[in-house]
Structures are given as C-alpha cells and as structure tokens.
Amino acid sequence: MPAVPLSAVIITFNEEANIGRCLGALAGLADEVVVVDSGSTDRTVAICQEHGARVVVHPFAGYVAQKNFATAQARHNHVLQLDADEVLTEALRGEIRRVLAGWQHAGYSLPRLTNYCGHWVRHGGWYPDRKLRLYDRRLGAWQGQLLHERYEVQPGRTVGQLQADLLHYSYPTIESHVQQLNKFTTIGAEELAARGKRAGALQLWLKPVWKFWHLYLVRGGWLDGSAGLSIAALSAWGVFLKYAKLRVLTRKPATA
C-alpha cells in the first residue's frame, strides 16, 4: 500500500527566531505544511512563505481551539502537529516515514528532549516528556482548558510510541523562562479560578517547596547541573506565582 499523505501543522506568533529551523526539518517529509499565525509582527509569516508553507491568519482563540482550528485547515487526515520551537531529528523523520508506510494506530506519541540554555535536559521529570503529535484527525481532537492542551484519541482507539527524539528548543535564556512563567502562571491562575479553586496560605508555602524537592531530588534534577537547579528553582517559583495570583483573583473585596 502507498504511504498515507501527511500534513504538518504549526501555530505561531512572533516565532522568527525558531520557525525556520522547525520548517527546515520538515522538508521532504510532509506533503504540505500549514502555519496558523495569530498576527505576528515580526518576520514569522515571511519566513514561513520562504519555506513554502501555506499561512492562514487566525486570531488566537486559546491553545486548544487554535490547535483544533489548525488541524482542520490540513488537506490530509494524517497530521503532524509541531510547535515552532520543536525540530525533528533525522532518526525521527525516518520513524515517521515508516509509520506513514504502514499506519496502524489512531495516533503516535513522540519523546521530547528539551534544550535549556544550551543544555539537553534528561532528568527532573523533563524527559522523555512524551507528546501525542502524530495522529489521524478523524479519530481524536485537542482537549484541555486554558493550559495543558493535549491531543486525545477516541475511546477504544490505540496509540503507538515512537522512539526517536523530538528536539525542543524551549528556553534559550533564563529570562525567557521567567517571561513564560509569568505568562503561564497568569493563565493557570485564571483556569483554577474558573474551576472554583482557592489558594490558602499553606498552598503558597508548601506547594513550591514540594515542587523544588520533587524535581531536584526525587526526579534527579541535580544530575543536570546548574540547568537542573535553575529549572527546579524557577518551577517552584512558578507554583508560588500561580497560587499567589489565584489568591488575588479570588480575594473577597474589602468592605468599608
């Protein structure tokens, strides 16, 4: 049987630093590349067009809705969804070709290896960080709330596992990690507030301490040296920020 055709789908916003590397690794693998951009003001769209991608401009509707919209723009039912800061290795390209030549599951998960300030992180719970990114769109959909979107296949459907790494260039600097933490903790606090959650004083103290202890000691973050220490410390700080912001969001207004 001939290989099934593949659509690669990416959502972007001001990703000129990353998108060229992502698109370059897709060359010769995907039958089409669709980029759904939410109004970039840098060279993202121009770079995508230079690489032959089809660009669709669509206002950002939240990660779940945006990724479902992007999946719907594909011409083919078999979809590889990537983030702009992710890159296929040659080994992973080969695995995907073999899957396309004999598709068996509703979707396939990929192990993701993250580069943190120039260091490949293999401990602290950051690896293999499996993500379901290769799927038959007829058999599942993106699910979740404001954060932590995930692709879920229909009940009873099976998911295969690929073994080669998907490279994730997430944090080139400490500053980029801090900026993302500030953004995502705001969204996370809003999500918790929408679910009726509240933050007590014990959560503000104990949850960050547990986060650091769990990532750095229990999950072996210390094995990644200074990168592991930074990840554990900033992740703990992020937990504090999320619950501190939740506390402000759900605080009862003062009475006169």
From TrEMBL:
UniProt keyword list: Transferase
> Which GO molecular function annotations are given, in alphabetical order?
transferase activity
Q: Does Transferase appear among the keywords?
A: yes
Instruction: Keyword check for Oxidoreductase, yes or no.
Output: no
* Positions of the Glycosyltransferase 2-like domain: 7-90
Q: Which domain of life is it from?
A: Bacteria
Segments spanning the bilayer are: none
What Pfam families has UniProt attached to this entry? Glycos_transf_2
Protein family membership: Belongs to the glycosyltransferase 2 family. WaaE/KdtX subfamily.
What is this protein called in UniProt?
A: Glycosyltransferase family 2 protein
